[in-house]
Structure formats: structure tokens, C-alpha cells
Design goal:
8-stranded antiparallel sheet, alpha+beta, globular
């Protein structure tokens, strides 16, 4: 099993606020306008799942576990590369928290060599986007 982790990101909002927004995927509607139009065009979501077209094919993730207020776990329902993904949210102070994203995938050595860098870069871009969200609403 190969593990990819984002850098730990400071979030200037309380842990519970971050969890509340991210654990209900319908909240993506609030931030969809900030996504690049070419990236958001094929974005489809409901409360428990999200799907998007990628250069490698269509990817659909479903929330499989919520550990309020600290973790949201996803697994792929449809993907050229099956993987698990989770968002960890930890408190720093009453008004701030920190976040780390993790992907675990069962990759053979050949595939791992091809996808490690794009997966790591993609994970950091997702972390960048999540760090910029206004979680106060």
C-alpha cells in the first residue's frame, strides 16, 4: 500500500466549522465559483459523493466514514486507480485548526513510478484549495 500525504495546513477557523462544511459535500456549491471553470465543468456532487473528470478518466469518491469533528474518509466508487482518501482536521486553538490530506492506494512498482508525482502534486493542490475556503458561513 502506497501512502501520499499533503503538508499540514493551518486553517484559521475552528475544527468544528471546518468539519461541518467538508462533511456535507453539498457545501461545495458555495465554493464552486472559485474553482477554475475548466476544472469545475464536470464536477458533480451530492451530500455523500463527488465525481469529476480528470485527464486519467472519471473519478467518483463516496464518504464512507465520518469521525466528527476530526476525520472524513472517502473511497473510490469509480476510478482508473482505486484509492482511499481522508481529510484529518485537528484543533490548534478554539479559533483555528490544522488539516492534512492522505491518499492510500495499492500500486504496483511500475504504476507507482508513473503516478507518484502527479498524485502528490494533486494532493497539494486540493490542500491549497481547502485552505482558502471561508468556513465561517
Amino acid at each position: 500500500m502506497s501512502t501520499f500525504e499533503s503538508t499540514i495546513r493551518p486553517i484559521n477557523y475552528p475544527q468544528q466549522s471546518v468539519y461541518n462544511l467538508l462533511s456535507d459535500l453539498t457545501n461545495i456549491e458555495r465554493v464552486k465559483s472559485r474553482l477554475p471553470e475548466d476544472k469545475a465543468r464536470d464536477l458533480v456532487f451530492d451530500q455523500n459523493s463527488i465525481s469529476i473528470s480528470t485527464p486519467m478518466g472519471s473519478v467518483k469518491l463516496r464518504i464512507v466514514d465520518r469521525e466528527e469533528p476530526k476525520c472524513i474518509k472517502f473511497e473510490t466508487e469509480q476510478s482508473p486507480l482505486p484509492f482511499n482518501f481522508w481529510i484529518q482536521i485537528l484543533p490548534v486553538t478554539e479559533a483555528s485548526s490544522k488539516m492534512k490530506l492522505t491518499i492510500k492506494a495499492d500500486l504496483n512498482p511500475f504504476i507507482k513510478g508513473m503516478v507518484s508525482k502527479p498524485l502528490q502534486e494533486g494532493l497539494e493542490k486540493i490542500a491549497d484549495a481547502l485552505q482558502l475556503i471561508d468556513y465561517s458561513a
